[in-house]
Amino acid sequence: MRGIDKVYDRALKAGKIQILSEWSHGGAAQGFKAAQLGTPGFCSKQMLGSDIVRYNPYLKVIQNPLKAEKDPVVFVPALYPDVAIIHCHAADKYGNAYIYGPAVNDMAVAAAARKLIITAEEIVPENDIRYNKQGQIIPFFQ
User: Fold this and answer.
1) Is the CB of residue 108 less than 8 Å from the CB of residue 62?
2) Would you say 13 and 19 are in contact if contact means Cβ atoms under 8 Å apart?
3) Beta bridge partners of 87
4) Bridge partner residues of 88 (DSSP)
5) Strand pairing category for 41-44 and 72-77
6) Predicted TM-score of the model (pTM)
7) Contacts with 67 (C-beta within 8 Å, 6 or more apart), sequence order
8) Please, are residues 19 and 8 in contact by the beta-carbon 8 Å criterion?
9) Are 104 and 1 in contact (CB under 8 A)?
């Protein structure tokens, strides 16, 4: 959604790293959202029409528990990254961070990550973040 990481791409092509599981953007977003909400995962139809389910050992095709007739769904488990690095427009000295405009999956990733590193364009007074209602705020406790 934000382009290709060129360093990652070079390392993958050089054989320095290997892919352990394939994820679609939407599937990863659902896993991060499940972690953010504290659920074990979500049922989704999203990846049923792709080979991702075949090559990802973490995804399970199950019967929809809410339907009596045959209705397969993919169970997407909650994803908890060990470390997430999120670049924001502004942050205060306490660690509250501010993103102007859409945050894509940043809010879910920030809540799901075991360790969160925030980088910012500028350090602003606490009131600038507290009273600015135009974007997304990642609170200090995350």
Assistant:
1) no
2) no
3) 119
4) 120
5) antiparallel
6) 0.83
7) none
8) no
9) yes
Q: Are the CB atoms for 83 and 118 separated by under 8 Å?
A: no
- Structure tokens that stand for 60 in this block: 């399970």
Rounded to whole angstroms, the Cα distance separating 3 from 14 reads 20
Beta bridge partners of 72: 63
Which among 111, 97, 117 has a CA at the least distance from the CA of 29? Answer: 111
**Planar angle of CA 97, 98, 103, nearest 5 degrees:** 110
State the 10-residue block means of pLDDT for the chain, 142 residues long. 80 92 90 96 92 92 94 96 94 91 89 95 89 83 88
- Say if residues 137 and 126 touch (Cβ distance below 8 Å): no
Query: Which tokens belong to 45?
Result: 């139809």
Question: Tokens at residue 131, please?
Answer: 């009273």
Q: What is the residue-wise DSSP string for 30-95? A: HHHHHHHHT-SEEEESTTTTSSHHHH-TT-EEEE-TT-SS--EEEEEE----SEEEEEEEEE-TTS
Q: Say what the pLDDT of residue 114 is.
A: 96
